[in-house]
Structure formats: C-alpha cells, structure tokens
Design a protein that fits this description.
The complex is a heterodimer of chains A (308) and B (228). With 308 residues, chain A is α/β, with parallel strands linked by helices. Chain A has a single domain, classed as Alpha-Beta Barrel (TIM Barrel). Chain A is built from 9 helices and 12 strands. Chain B is mainly beta. Chain B folds into 2 domains: 87 residues, Translation factors (Elongation Factor Tu (Ef-tu), domain 3, Beta Barrel), CATH 2.40.30.10; 120 residues, 3-Layer(aba) Sandwich (Rossmann fold). Chain B has 4 helices and 14 strands. Classes of the chains: A alpha/beta (308), B mainly beta (228). At the A-B interface, strand 3, strand 4 and helix 8 of A face loops of B.
Chain lengths: 308, 228
C-alpha cells in the first residue's frame, strides 16, 4: 500500500501510461496503475478514439486490454520486473467478473476497481455490490474508483466503505462530447467519451473534499493535475496520494517536475513534507505562503511562524 | 525519446504549409519516418509531426494549418520556444534496392529527409492544387501532378521499392498496386509514446498503437482505414 513515510506519493491514472513502453516514466512514479483489465481481451472502440477540447480532452478507448489470462501470464510478470509497486485496475460487467479477477491477483500493491468508466455500454451492478463481492475474493487493498457524475458522491463513498473498500480513487472521467468543427458530427467514432484534463480539477477537488469529510478511507486524488500546486490542493482537500493522467500525454517528465514543485510548494507554506497538507482545506487554521522576497507571518493554532 | 524546450529558428511559408525550423539542441533527429510531438501553444495536447528536414543543428517540420494546434504552430516566430519530444515511432526501412518515394499533400512531410538519406531517388508527388504543389520545391527533381491527376497514374511499370506517405485513399491505392510498399500512416495522437492508446489502427486483425507499431508499416499487413 502507500507508504506514509514517503515525502510525496504520485501514481499515474489508469489508462494514461503503459509501463512497458515507457518504463522510465513508470519508474519516476511511486506506483504504476495498470490499464483496466477485463476478463476477455478487448481491442477497444474503433478509431477515432481521442479528441482534444479547449480545456481538456475526450477519450473513448473502450477498455482496450489483453484480457485477464494474458495479463496474468505475460504482462504482470514483466511489470513486476520494473521495480515499481503495481496497482491493478480491475473492470468487468458483473460483480462476479470483478471478483474473479481479484481472486486471481497476488503479489501486487493494490487493486483499483474501475466502477465508473463512461466508455462501455453495459452498466454493471452497483458499486457497493461489486466491492462486496471483491472483498470476499481477496485480502489485497481495494480502492474504489468512483465517478464524479454522482449527485452525492459522499453517499457512494460511505456505501463502498461499508462494503469493505480500503480506499477511494477520485475521480474517474466525466461523460463528454466534441463535435468536429468542419462536419458538426461527433469527433469520436463512438460518440461521447470520458472528459479529462484541466477542466476536471474543480470536480476532483469537490469529490475529494466531500469524501474526506464523509469517510476515513485514504484517497488517491486525480483530475486535471498539471503542477505541484494542483497536487498540493488535492492533498489539502483530503487526498493522501495524487494520480497524474492527461498531463502525462503532453509531458512524460511531469512526475519528476510535479514532485519537485510539490515539495517546494509545501516548503513555502512551512510544511516539511507535502503529506502534512493532507486535509488542511477542512481546517479552520489560517495559512500564509512564503516565497523568496516576501515575509509572511502566520499565527496558526500551534503558534508556528513562517518567515521567508 | 527526450523532451526539451527548444527555440524556433524560423517559420517559412511553403504553399499553404509552413516549414517550422527549430534549433535542434541535443535532440537526436532519428530516422526518416520517425516523428516528434510538438507542444501546440495554448492547447492541452501536443501534435505529432514527421521530421521533414534535419540539417546540422536544426529540425524542420512541414505543417498544414488545419486546426487550432497546427494553426498555433504555424504562427510561431523566430525566438519563440516550445517543448519537443522525440524521436518517436519506427521509421522507414532504408536498405532498399530501388527506392521510389511517393507523397500526397502534407504527406510529403517525411520525404525530404528520407530523400537525402537515400541519395535523392526518384519521387512522385501529388497535390490538390498548384498552390499546394509549391511544396514540391522541398524535393528537387520530383515528378509532380495536380488533381484531377493522381500519383498512382505516374507509377512506373518497372518494380520499385515504394516508400510512401499521404492521404488514406492514396495509401490504399498504393497498397493494391505495390503490395510490398512501406506506408507511413497517420492517426490522431495525444501522447506519441504509447501511453494514451488513442492512435489505434487495425493491423493483422488486431487494433494496435500506431506510435508503437508504426507509423511506417508494410502494406502487406491488414490495415483498416483510420478515419470513420
């Protein structure tokens, strides 16, 4: 699971990195989350599967993956050889399918249950039912990845906590659509797709903030993170780890950059470790920011002062 | 692959296209047919561009301004900076006996670099207008045709090793006429290095990532058209 002693915990968002084609990027993270694995192999949706928008992008990849058997026999052994903790993203079309895959997994850091992908047509059973089935099938840490489209995401968090989840991954993509400007037809072959990128950050912050107040579970926060400050904000909202998605497409060096930016942003606020920011958004304490050239005095409840 | 912040040396108009020249710095230009992801100013995602020319200290990219990203790239000026990632993908197989370069429209982009590496072999280029055909100046000596004439009509009878890049209908026609041809395909790409799974094309019955398996593919493999 995530080590509380690390100064920052960065993962990739599932589906946003292939550790086997870019091992150096995977190694720059604290953990690698696989593309969602389904029982049967899937080629995914027909092209065109991606489209850029003004403040993000859409993807309709459609859970392309080698399938459970080939993943276990070929992919997972190679991933283990990279020396990075592996989180396996598990998907399926019934609680039983999710549970079967969970039961077959061992020697991985955690399982992330993809409960909310907008790119498949069939709706699975409720998130809580799936978590319960998986809980019975494995002792591995189970993180429930929830959709931000729920009216009350905290309710979903409480439900999966009660069903036995060990953590939350917030958030999956939102359903979005782009029209080609010339033809005025959908840019994606499948029509709609998952909306990700900078526009999602306020949505992710709201989800993390609400769920952190509702449950005690550790949270991997993700959605539109581009900078160390974005990551710090998710931690402040209540996350204990941050995942990078769309940013990896434009900047494979993002993990290193964000890690050092995050440390600098934390230090500028008088924190010796970014994880000390966890939950600060819920606190009534005042906090000042110190940058070279200004002196900021804050008087938090513990009487600490920060000067440049 | 390396990602570096590089400075623009210049941007020259070539017909409707722009030849964007960038200070190469420490970047390896790669092989003809390989590409770089260019940061598109003001956009979320970079844009894939084949290496068009690789003179000492420079990388040149031929860009067609068809959308917000390519328009922003074509508007860059000397001194502007942008992040560049590459070289990416698999280029042309250069050990061929009788090369013939075939290009269509903006698809001619990788051919100037390829031509110089192969010692200026015969080349046939097709464009939709005389204005577009001004880009043929990048391949001195090339045979040029303009629509309604198509390059396939200019193919010689003798066998050649065809190396081609251009619109899908052109590649499909070449595939039928020259089964051994090396074809440089295109697909929308978010990342260019295998992370996004967006650039899938059907190869031998399976959907595979063009940036990892291509973009240069042999026509013999079972390819389905990329666009819907």
């Amino acid at each position: 699971m995530l080590s509380a002693t690390k100064s920052s915990v960065l993962l990739n968002a599932s589906g946003c990195l292939d550790a086997l084609t870019a091992p150096e990027v995977a190694r720059s993270l604290d953990g690698f989350v696989t593309k969602t694995i389904t029982p049967e192999p899937r080629g995914g949706n027909p092209p065109v599967r991606i489209a850029e928008t003004d403040a993000g992008m859409l993807n309709a990849i459609g859970l392309a993956n080698p399938g459970r058997e080939r993943f276990l026999a070929e992919t997972l052994p190679r991933l283990r050889g990279l020396g990075v903790p592996v989180w396996v993203s598990v998907g399926g079309f019934s609680a039983a399918e999710y549970a079967e895959t969970c039961a077959a997994l061992e020697g991985v850091a955690a399982i992330e249950l993809n409960l909310s992908c907008p790119n498949v047509d069939e709706a699975p059973e409720s998130a809580a039912a799936i978590v319960a089935a998986c809980r019975a099938a494995t002792t591995l840490p189970l993180y429930a990845k929830l959709s931000p489209a729920a009216w009350d995401i905290a309710e979903g968090a409480r439900a999966v906590e009660a069903a036995g989840a060990d953590g939350l991954s917030l958030v999956n993509t939102l359903r979005g659509l782009a029209l080609d400007a010339r033809t005025l037809r959908p840019a994606l072959a499948r029509g709609s797709g998952g909306y990700s990128g900078p526009a999602l950050k306020p949505v992710a912050l709201a989800a993390v903030y609400a769920c952190a107040a509702a449950v005690e579970l550790p949270i991997v926060g993700m959605g539109g993170v581009r900078t160390g400050l974005d990551a710090l904000e998710l931690l402040a909202a209540g996350a204990s780890a941050v995942a990078l998605g769309t940013i990896l497409f434009s900047d494979p060096s993002a993990p290193e950059r964000i890690r050092s930016e995050l440390a600098a942003e934390a230090a500028a606020r008088g924190l010796s470790n970014p994880l000390e920011a966890r939950g600060l958004a819920h606190s009534s304490l005042q906090m000042g920011v110190s940058h070279p050239g200004n002196e900021v005095q804050k008087v938090p409840g513990n009487g600490r002062k920060v000067t440049a | 692959m390396r990602r570096e912040l590089r400075r623009v040396i210049g941007a020259e108009q070539v017909g409707p296209y722009t030849l964007l020249r960038i200070d190469r710095g420490g970047l390896d230009p790669g092989e003809p047919g390989q590409f770089f992801m260019l940061e598109a100013p003001g956009r979320v995602l970079p844009r894939p561009m084949s290496v068009c020319l690789a003179p000492a200290g420079e990388l040149g990219f031929l860009i067609d301004p068809i959308g917000p990203g390519t328009r922003a790239l074509c508007a860059l000026e000397a001194g502007d900076e942008l992040h560049v990632l590459g070289p990416l993908g698999n280029g042309f197989e250069l050990t061929v006996e009788r090369p013939l370069l075939v290009g269509g429209g903006i698809g001619i982009a990788p051919l100037p670099y390829l031509s110089r590496r192969l010692g200026s072999p015969p080349a046939i280029l097709g464009f939709r207008s005389e204005w577009h055909a001004e880009a043929a100046a990048l391949l001195p000596g090339a045979e040029v045709c303009v629509e309604p004439a198509y390059v396939t009509a200019l193919l010689p009878d003798e066998p050649y090793d065809v190396l081609a890049c251009g619109p899908e209908p052109m590649l499909a026609a070449l595939r039928a006429l020259a089964p051994e041809a090396q074809l440089a395909w295109e697909a929308p790409m978010a990342c260019g290095y295998g992370a996004c799974y967006g650039c899938a094309v059907e190869i031998e019955g399976e959907l595979r990532r063009l940036c990892v398996e291509g973009p240069v593919l042999t026509a013999r493999k079972d390819l389905v058209a990329v666009s819907n």
